[in-house]
Design brief:
Elements (H helix, E strand, L loop, with lengths): L8 H4 L18 H13 L6 H27 L3 E6 L6 H9 L6 E7 L4 H7 L5 E5 L8 H8 L9 E5 L16 E7 L6 H4 L1 H5 L3 E5 L11 H11 L4 E4 L5 H18 L1
Parallel strand pairs: 1-4, 1-5, 2-3, 2-4, 5-6, 6-7
Helix pairs in contact: 3-6
Protein backbone atom coordinates (compact mmCIF):
# COMPACT_ATOMS: atom_id res chain seq x y z
CA UNK A 1 0.00 0.00 0.00
CA UNK A 2 0.98 3.62 -0.39
CA UNK A 3 3.50 4.86 2.13
CA UNK A 4 2.28 8.45 2.10
CA UNK A 5 -1.42 7.99 2.81
CA UNK A 6 -0.83 6.48 6.22
CA UNK A 7 -1.02 2.79 5.27
CA UNK A 8 2.64 2.19 6.04
CA UNK A 9 4.22 5.60 6.30
CA UNK A 10 6.26 4.83 9.41
CA UNK A 11 8.04 2.06 7.52
CA UNK A 12 9.07 4.40 4.73
CA UNK A 13 9.77 7.83 6.28
CA UNK A 14 12.84 7.90 8.48
CA UNK A 15 14.22 11.38 7.97
CA UNK A 16 12.62 14.81 8.18
CA UNK A 17 13.65 15.66 4.63
CA UNK A 18 11.83 12.60 3.28
CA UNK A 19 14.88 10.81 1.93
CA UNK A 20 13.19 7.42 1.99
CA UNK A 21 9.65 8.34 0.92
CA UNK A 22 7.45 7.86 -2.12
CA UNK A 23 7.49 10.78 -4.54
CA UNK A 24 3.82 11.57 -4.28
CA UNK A 25 1.53 13.09 -1.72
CA UNK A 26 -1.84 14.15 -0.49
CA UNK A 27 -3.16 17.52 -1.53
CA UNK A 28 -5.56 20.00 -0.08
CA UNK A 29 -7.18 22.18 -2.72
CA UNK A 30 -10.25 22.74 -0.54
CA UNK A 31 -11.43 22.46 3.05
CA UNK A 32 -12.84 18.95 2.50
CA UNK A 33 -9.41 17.65 1.48
CA UNK A 34 -7.87 19.29 4.53
CA UNK A 35 -10.43 17.44 6.62
CA UNK A 36 -9.71 14.15 4.85
CA UNK A 37 -6.00 14.38 5.62
CA UNK A 38 -6.73 15.52 9.16
CA UNK A 39 -8.89 12.43 9.72
CA UNK A 40 -6.09 10.20 8.41
CA UNK A 41 -3.65 11.73 10.88
CA UNK A 42 -6.11 11.77 13.76
CA UNK A 43 -7.14 8.12 13.48
CA UNK A 44 -3.68 6.67 12.86
CA UNK A 45 -1.53 6.85 16.01
CA UNK A 46 1.55 5.96 13.96
CA UNK A 47 1.36 9.41 12.37
CA UNK A 48 1.33 11.44 15.58
CA UNK A 49 4.99 12.37 15.95
CA UNK A 50 6.04 15.83 14.85
CA UNK A 51 8.75 14.64 12.47
CA UNK A 52 6.38 12.42 10.50
CA UNK A 53 3.75 15.15 10.32
CA UNK A 54 6.36 17.59 9.06
CA UNK A 55 7.35 15.22 6.26
CA UNK A 56 3.71 14.55 5.33
CA UNK A 57 3.02 18.29 5.16
CA UNK A 58 5.94 18.80 2.76
CA UNK A 59 4.70 15.96 0.55
CA UNK A 60 1.17 17.35 0.52
CA UNK A 61 2.30 20.83 -0.37
CA UNK A 62 4.32 19.55 -3.34
CA UNK A 63 1.39 17.55 -4.64
CA UNK A 64 -0.95 20.49 -4.14
CA UNK A 65 1.30 22.70 -6.23
CA UNK A 66 1.50 20.11 -9.01
CA UNK A 67 -2.28 19.63 -8.99
CA UNK A 68 -2.77 23.35 -9.54
CA UNK A 69 -0.30 23.12 -12.41
CA UNK A 70 -2.36 20.28 -13.94
CA UNK A 71 -5.57 22.30 -13.68
CA UNK A 72 -3.84 25.22 -15.37
CA UNK A 73 -3.00 22.89 -18.29
CA UNK A 74 -6.61 21.79 -18.57
CA UNK A 75 -7.89 25.36 -18.29
CA UNK A 76 -5.49 26.60 -20.96
CA UNK A 77 -6.94 24.09 -23.43
CA UNK A 78 -10.55 24.49 -22.31
CA UNK A 79 -10.71 20.88 -21.09
CA UNK A 80 -12.94 19.81 -18.21
CA UNK A 81 -11.13 17.28 -16.03
CA UNK A 82 -13.11 14.69 -14.07
CA UNK A 83 -11.66 12.33 -11.46
CA UNK A 84 -13.48 8.96 -11.35
CA UNK A 85 -13.12 7.16 -8.01
CA UNK A 86 -14.58 3.93 -6.67
CA UNK A 87 -13.74 0.51 -5.35
CA UNK A 88 -12.58 -2.06 -7.94
CA UNK A 89 -15.28 -3.45 -10.18
CA UNK A 90 -17.87 -0.72 -9.74
CA UNK A 91 -17.98 -0.05 -13.48
CA UNK A 92 -15.76 2.97 -14.19
CA UNK A 93 -14.21 1.60 -17.38
CA UNK A 94 -17.46 0.07 -18.60
CA UNK A 95 -19.20 3.42 -18.17
CA UNK A 96 -16.53 5.15 -20.26
CA UNK A 97 -16.78 2.46 -22.95
CA UNK A 98 -20.54 2.90 -23.09
CA UNK A 99 -20.33 6.68 -23.20
CA UNK A 100 -17.88 6.53 -26.10
CA UNK A 101 -20.71 5.52 -28.41
CA UNK A 102 -23.15 8.10 -27.09
CA UNK A 103 -21.44 11.43 -26.37
CA UNK A 104 -21.25 14.51 -28.56
CA UNK A 105 -18.20 15.86 -26.75
CA UNK A 106 -14.70 14.49 -27.32
CA UNK A 107 -12.89 12.90 -24.41
CA UNK A 108 -9.67 11.22 -23.40
CA UNK A 109 -8.82 9.03 -20.41
CA UNK A 110 -5.85 8.81 -18.06
CA UNK A 111 -6.04 5.33 -16.54
CA UNK A 112 -4.61 4.31 -13.18
CA UNK A 113 -4.02 0.71 -12.11
CA UNK A 114 -1.38 -1.09 -10.09
CA UNK A 115 -0.48 -3.33 -13.04
CA UNK A 116 -1.45 -4.10 -16.68
CA UNK A 117 -2.74 -1.80 -19.41
CA UNK A 118 -6.04 -3.62 -19.86
CA UNK A 119 -8.32 -0.70 -19.06
CA UNK A 120 -6.46 1.68 -21.37
CA UNK A 121 -6.55 -0.94 -24.12
CA UNK A 122 -10.32 -1.26 -23.70
CA UNK A 123 -10.74 2.50 -24.04
CA UNK A 124 -8.41 2.72 -27.05
CA UNK A 125 -10.39 0.01 -28.81
CA UNK A 126 -13.32 2.46 -28.81
CA UNK A 127 -11.21 5.05 -30.62
CA UNK A 128 -10.67 7.12 -27.47
CA UNK A 129 -7.18 8.42 -26.59
CA UNK A 130 -5.98 6.80 -23.37
CA UNK A 131 -2.80 6.76 -21.32
CA UNK A 132 -2.11 4.01 -18.80
CA UNK A 133 -0.36 4.75 -15.51
CA UNK A 134 0.88 1.68 -13.65
CA UNK A 135 1.36 2.70 -10.03
CA UNK A 136 3.08 -0.47 -8.84
CA UNK A 137 2.24 -0.58 -5.14
CA UNK A 138 0.64 2.87 -4.82
CA UNK A 139 -3.07 2.69 -4.03
CA UNK A 140 -4.03 5.91 -5.83
CA UNK A 141 -2.95 8.38 -8.47
CA UNK A 142 -1.30 11.64 -7.52
CA UNK A 143 -0.77 14.93 -9.34
CA UNK A 144 2.74 14.01 -10.51
CA UNK A 145 1.58 10.78 -12.12
CA UNK A 146 -1.30 12.54 -13.84
CA UNK A 147 1.00 15.26 -15.13
CA UNK A 148 2.98 12.64 -17.04
CA UNK A 149 -0.22 11.50 -18.67
CA UNK A 150 -1.06 15.02 -19.78
CA UNK A 151 1.86 14.99 -22.20
CA UNK A 152 0.28 12.01 -23.97
CA UNK A 153 -3.20 13.53 -24.09
CA UNK A 154 -4.19 15.50 -27.24
CA UNK A 155 -5.60 18.34 -25.14
CA UNK A 156 -6.28 20.46 -28.22
CA UNK A 157 -8.53 17.72 -29.59
CA UNK A 158 -10.67 16.83 -26.54
CA UNK A 159 -13.31 18.56 -24.43
CA UNK A 160 -13.18 16.33 -21.34
CA UNK A 161 -10.37 14.36 -19.72
CA UNK A 162 -11.40 11.58 -17.38
CA UNK A 163 -8.87 10.48 -14.77
CA UNK A 164 -9.82 6.93 -13.85
CA UNK A 165 -8.26 6.52 -10.45
CA UNK A 166 -7.00 3.29 -8.89
CA UNK A 167 -9.86 1.21 -7.46
CA UNK A 168 -9.89 2.22 -3.80
CA UNK A 169 -12.43 3.90 -1.52
CA UNK A 170 -9.83 5.32 0.87
CA UNK A 171 -6.59 6.86 -0.40
CA UNK A 172 -7.74 8.71 -3.55
CA UNK A 173 -10.11 10.84 -1.48
CA UNK A 174 -7.25 12.93 -0.06
CA UNK A 175 -5.23 13.32 -3.24
CA UNK A 176 -5.85 16.24 -5.55
CA UNK A 177 -4.85 15.13 -9.04
CA UNK A 178 -5.77 18.40 -10.74
CA UNK A 179 -9.35 17.56 -11.66
CA UNK A 180 -12.20 20.07 -11.70
CA UNK A 181 -14.83 17.56 -10.54
CA UNK A 182 -15.01 14.26 -8.66
CA UNK A 183 -17.43 11.47 -9.56
CA UNK A 184 -17.62 8.59 -7.09
CA UNK A 185 -19.20 5.30 -8.13
CA UNK A 186 -20.65 2.74 -5.73
CA UNK A 187 -22.28 -0.43 -7.05
CA UNK A 188 -25.32 -2.32 -5.80
CA UNK A 189 -23.37 -5.60 -5.24
CA UNK A 190 -21.07 -3.81 -2.79
CA UNK A 191 -23.94 -3.44 -0.32
CA UNK A 192 -25.76 -0.42 1.07
CA UNK A 193 -23.23 0.47 3.76
CA UNK A 194 -20.28 1.83 1.80
CA UNK A 195 -21.17 5.51 2.11
CA UNK A 196 -21.34 5.20 5.89
CA UNK A 197 -18.07 3.25 6.03
CA UNK A 198 -16.11 5.56 3.70
CA UNK A 199 -17.45 9.08 4.36
CA UNK A 200 -14.22 10.83 3.43
CA UNK A 201 -14.45 9.55 -0.14
CA UNK A 202 -18.08 10.56 -0.58
CA UNK A 203 -17.50 13.96 0.99
CA UNK A 204 -15.30 14.72 -2.04
CA UNK A 205 -18.00 13.80 -4.57
CA UNK A 206 -19.69 16.27 -6.88
CA UNK A 207 -21.71 13.38 -8.29
CA UNK A 208 -22.40 9.94 -6.81
CA UNK A 209 -23.32 7.20 -9.27
CA UNK A 210 -25.11 4.17 -7.83
CA UNK A 211 -24.20 1.63 -10.47
CA UNK A 212 -25.36 -1.83 -11.59
CA UNK A 213 -28.96 -0.92 -10.83
CA UNK A 214 -30.07 -3.75 -13.11
CA UNK A 215 -28.94 -6.14 -10.34
CA UNK A 216 -30.81 -4.52 -7.46
CA UNK A 217 -33.58 -7.14 -7.40
CA UNK A 218 -30.95 -9.77 -6.61
CA UNK A 219 -29.50 -7.97 -3.58
CA UNK A 220 -30.84 -6.64 -0.30
CA UNK A 221 -29.82 -3.11 -1.21
CA UNK A 222 -31.47 -0.17 0.55
CA UNK A 223 -31.30 2.51 -2.13
CA UNK A 224 -33.03 5.25 -0.15
CA UNK A 225 -30.81 4.60 2.86
CA UNK A 226 -27.69 5.13 0.73
CA UNK A 227 -29.06 8.36 -0.69
CA UNK A 228 -29.90 9.62 2.79
CA UNK A 229 -26.43 8.76 4.07
CA UNK A 230 -24.83 10.54 1.10
CA UNK A 231 -26.80 13.70 1.82
CA UNK A 232 -25.96 13.57 5.51
CA UNK A 233 -22.31 13.74 4.49
CA UNK A 234 -22.79 16.25 1.69
CA UNK A 235 -26.30 17.74 1.48
CA UNK A 236 -25.92 19.25 -2.00
CA UNK A 237 -24.33 16.25 -3.73
CA UNK A 238 -25.89 15.08 -6.99
CA UNK A 239 -26.90 11.41 -7.11
CA UNK A 240 -27.82 9.37 -10.19
CA UNK A 241 -28.85 5.75 -10.55
CA UNK A 242 -27.02 3.96 -13.34
CA UNK A 243 -27.09 0.77 -15.33
CA UNK A 244 -24.98 0.64 -18.46
CA UNK A 245 -27.66 -1.65 -19.90
CA UNK A 246 -30.11 1.25 -19.59
CA UNK A 247 -29.01 3.86 -22.10
CA UNK A 248 -31.39 6.44 -20.63
CA UNK A 249 -29.50 6.30 -17.31
CA UNK A 250 -26.17 6.65 -19.12
CA UNK A 251 -27.60 9.62 -21.01
CA UNK A 252 -28.42 11.32 -17.72
CA UNK A 253 -24.77 11.03 -16.71
CA UNK A 254 -23.72 12.50 -20.04
CA UNK A 255 -26.16 15.39 -19.62
CA UNK A 256 -24.75 16.10 -16.14
CA UNK A 257 -21.23 16.25 -17.58
CA UNK A 258 -22.38 18.42 -20.49
CA UNK A 259 -24.02 20.85 -18.08
CA UNK A 260 -20.85 21.12 -16.01
CA UNK A 261 -18.76 21.52 -19.14
CA UNK A 262 -20.89 24.30 -20.54
CA UNK A 263 -20.76 26.12 -17.21
CA UNK A 264 -16.99 26.40 -17.70
CA UNK A 265 -17.06 27.57 -21.31
Amino acid sequence: MCADCGCSITDQIHTEDGGNQHHHGHSHNNSHEHQAAHETLHHNPQLSDAKTISVITKILDKNNHEAAHNRAHFDKHGVLSINLMSSPGSGKTTLLETMADMVDFRFGVIEGDLETSRDADRIKSKGIPAYQIQTGSACHLDAFMVHKGLHDMPLNEIDVCFIENVGNLVCPASYDVGAHLNIVLVSVPEGSDKIEKYPVMFRQADLILITKMDLIEHFEYDLEHEKQEARKIKPNVDILELSVKDKASVQRVIEWIEFKRKMRI
